[in-house]
Amino acid sequence: MFKLIIVDDERIIRESISALIDWKTLDIELVGVCANGIEAYNAILDEAPDIVITDIRMPGMSGLELIKKAAEMDLDTQFIILSGYGEFEYAKEGMRYGVRNYLLKPCNEQQILEAVQKTIQDVRERQQRRKIKESTFLAADTMRHNVISSLLNDALYTDADLETAIGSYEPYLDFYHEAYRLFYIYYLEPAQLSQFLRLLKDYCETYMAQISLYSVYVKNTFLLFCSENRLNDQAMEAFLKKAAVRFAPVSLEIQNQRFSSLTGLLSVLLEKIRRYSSIYYIHNFHPFYTFNYTAVSHEMEKLYLACQNGDAAAVPKLLELLGSISDFRFFKQLSISLVIKASASDSTAALTSWLKNLENEENPDAARQRVTDKLSELLLSASPSEKPHQSSSTRQIIDYIEQNLSNPNLTLKYIAEQQLYMNVDYVSRRFQKETETKFSSYLADLRIQKARELLTRQPQLRVQDVAEQIGFGNNPQYFSQLFKKKLGITPSNFAAELLS
User: Fold this and answer.
1) Phi, psi dihedrals of residue 254, rounded to the nearest 5°
2) Percent helix, strand and coil across the chain, each to the nearest 5
3) Does residue 320 register a pLDDT over 50?
4) Omega before residue 316 within 30° of 0, cis
5) Alpha carbon distance 147, 333 (integer Å)
6) Measured distance CA(208)–CA(202) in Å, rounded
7) What is the pLDDT of residues 363-420, one digit of tens each?
């Protein structure tokens, strides 16, 4: 059931609207009838309504101010603006905040009903988009956490230096160009860790939704880091300092350090934690022990490198060593690291799903079989000389372009991050190397090729219609210019010659 609030400083109007419609038949619950914007703002905080019908001019807080404040809260609330004659230009400012439906006073039952029904559809669409966005973030976030924990394990317990270890994970994260923040929380005792994680979880769910946050805990020290992009580091530091006073008898000490790249941060982080025998990686606000099985990790790394160099005999040895690990958590941790590295050129959303399924698998025999099958598939599928010219990621980009060619907002960044869960810089370099052209040029050439095919089959099509079908719907003039640049003739003249 949807929740609705009505706001108007004229009692007769708000009461008339509330009584005029049978809200239950629309699957709507009327949760508030407010006399001004301030009262409505408080009601929105309390009820988080799906729909608000609000007057535009009210004392204390106008309808536009109310809409702006609600937008800042990032709610799924949709507004219907009530405006009188002479206020429509003022009301149109609401479009800046996503308002799509208006009612001109006085309005009748049918007009209100139509506006509410349209808004219900808007609410459903927005909720669906949010669900998809959240699902996409969770999948990408899981992949990023697997990468960071696996990389730390490689750097801590194998002979690989940090730069070498990063090479296996570069497809998934930007290690060199994105700034990061590292927060140090000192004197956090093990007995206080769970309480601290609960406070951190509540804060992040409220103020840091869809921001990947990484953390490591060693003896009495909690190290927390994330990309500076979208992070309010001052607000985070203020929260940590406020939380610190809860941990008597010794209050926590907070420090904040900026790094120009993730590589720089990790080099400092590793130096600080390397000397500890007990290291916990935090994922989903739960601590997981990082196992210091140095000898096993060293041997596994040697066997994996042999597999990568085409030594087929090393594959069963690697699987045998992996199968000998009795500690189930360490088995999972090492398996995840191996699968991520072995999938570096073929990463897809399917890999993220596979990793999530392994993490959730509680049956050791089933988990071991799952890992054996996956690594056998990855390590025995082809020798280095037999690998295809184009990687799976490049082929998937090409497939996605062809399936979504009409989308005028198609970008490599969206495909890399939202479809492949990979680092856009890595994907861009790989795509250019394997196709011998930049993404933008490839996209433009394909669009012109498709336009030529469309006009050849249907020369009577309007230039505007062709432009829309190939992704230039918002700029048909640019399409005509590009068509002429590529083929030496305008699309209209090209069609005219076919018809003549």
Assistant:
1) -115, 135
2) 60, 15, 30
3) yes
4) no
5) 11
6) 10
7) 999 999 999 999 998 888 644 444 446 777 888 899 999 999 999 888 898 888 888 8
Q: Specify the 3-state DSSP secondary structure of 287.
A: strand
User: For helices 109-157 and 11-20, what crossing angle results, to 10°?
Assistant: 80
Distances (CA, A) of 213 to 149, 282, 399: 12, 9, 32
pLDDT one-digit tens code per residue, 309-318: 888 889 999 9
pLDDT at 216 (0 to 100) = 96
270-296 pLDDT tens trace: 999 988 878 899 988 999 877 667 778
Rounded distance, CA 483 to CA 477, Å? 10
- Count the neighbouring beta carbons within 10 Å of the beta carbon of residue 48: 14
- Chain centroid offset of residue 232 CA: 18
Nearest 10 degrees: CA dihedral of 258, 260, 263, 268?
A: -30
Report the alpha-carbon distance of residue 266 to residue 152 in Å, rounded: 8
pLDDT exceeds cutoff 80 at 34: yes
Region of 206 (left: φ > 0; alpha: ψ -120 to 50; beta: rest) is alpha
Token output for 458: 């249907």
